[in-house]
Amino acid sequence: MSNENKTGQNETLVRGLTNRHIQLIALGGAIGTGLFLGIGPAAVLAGPSVILGYALAGIIAFFIMRQLGEMVVQEPVSGSFSYFAYKYWGNFPGFASGWNYWILYILVSMAELTAIGHYIHFWWPEIPLWVSSLFFFIVINALNLASVKVYGETEFWFSIIKVVAIIAMIIFGVYLLISGTGGEKATITNLWNDGGFFPKGLFNKTENGYSGLFAAMAMIMFSFGGLELIGITAAEAKNPEKTIPQATNQVIYRILIFYVGALVILFSLSPWRDITEGSSPFVMVFQNLNGLEFSLFGKVVQFNTLIANVLNLIVLTAALSVYNSSVYSNSRMLFGLAQQGNAPKFLKKLNKNSVPTNAIIISSCFAGICIIINKLVPEKAFEYLMALVVSTLIINWLMICYTHLKFKKSINAEGVQSKFPSIFFPISNYICIAFLVLILGLMSITGMEIQVILIPIWIGFLFVMYKLYKPK
Fold first, then answer.
1. 3-state DSSP call for residue 226?
2. How far apart are CA 363 and CA 360, in angstroms?
3. CA nearest 455: which of 385, 381, 390?
4. How far does the signal peptide extend, from start to end residue (predicted)?
5. How many structural domains comprise the chain?
6. Across-strand partners of 302?
7. Predicted confidence band of residue 35 (pLDDT cuts 50, 70, 90)
8. Distance of CA 209 to the CA centre of its chain
9. Is residue 426 reached through a cis peptide bond, with omega within 30 degrees of 0 on the bond before it?
10. pLDDT for res 270
11. CA-CA distance, 258 to 78, in Å (whole number)?
């Protein structure tokens, strides 16, 4: 690889991500704010059956990861699924897939930077929100400009914090259940003693809209957005034929432990009817411990106060992790698009540490503009931008599933032996596509019509841009 970097044109990424980096990047992609903060609304719609919803969505996400994993292990290149859509499907699918993913994480960057400001505000309300956002905007982009190893190390420790936090919560929750100190309401029978495991059925129309497991599936599925990051790391992973399969295969176990396992314990500790849209079961656990206090450095500290600070640190870490990964993945996607000829050539430029400098700078400029837009335009505009995040995520997953079908057809015709075959091909592809189409159908009748409408509009816009750009 180092020889390739000395060929005159510095256009080759280096493999600076080790096995532990890849493992924690994959794990970090599976654990985000969707687990810490996004469970409340879904729990209100479905009750305890939301646990089954996360298990089903996790299996679908795992199938998609295996499909992407097979492609990137076979050809560990920059651009990931955009490259494969370009090579095995056509120029426009490659163009659309790459730019769709890029805008997705530009918008996610905007949301996370805004959230970071609010989390800092919790401790220091005198600091303006834009100051906190700008500070971490500069820090994270500077880290990514240093080297891919610095990104990997940063994401490694961000993920460690999230993993330790969830494991601690699970262990503490088990202790509260077994010891009986979780309060009178804490019992495993909470999972079925109030209307059963499906207290709101599978799908029911109510005065306020829809409820039931299927009504919650859309927001549950979006909690797994980010798992595809493992595909972006392939071009910079050391020994990708070994590390990518290991990281991909372990995701299913992590989903079962960190999502399903944690939710079983947390729903046991607190009746599902006590959960509100603005809360999380993680918070509910500790509300049963009012009055508990202890001494810390000679000062009496309320347990709830400590937990509030710890939870704020965790969600801040989750937001920084997502933004860090957004900066990394966006720059690599732009680099890959430039290599395909679907983006300007200057985006292929690497610095002395083989980092795509121009791609990072351009992405960060757009993310910064989005922060300004967020502060200047009415809330409705921000709402539509966030709706586009949902639309682009669905497009991304569908394109991975279909591109994998084209990829398999091509290598099978050539008699090429796959190094990391996906599970249950091609049935798993059709299951994933059908599931995602079902999600779109549910969204269209459960108050998320704008996200569905935006999909053909956005694809049409990308097609116009593709025709105007006329890539070679």
1. coil
2. 5
3. 390
4. none
5. 1
6. 293
7. low
8. 27
9. yes
10. 79
11. 30
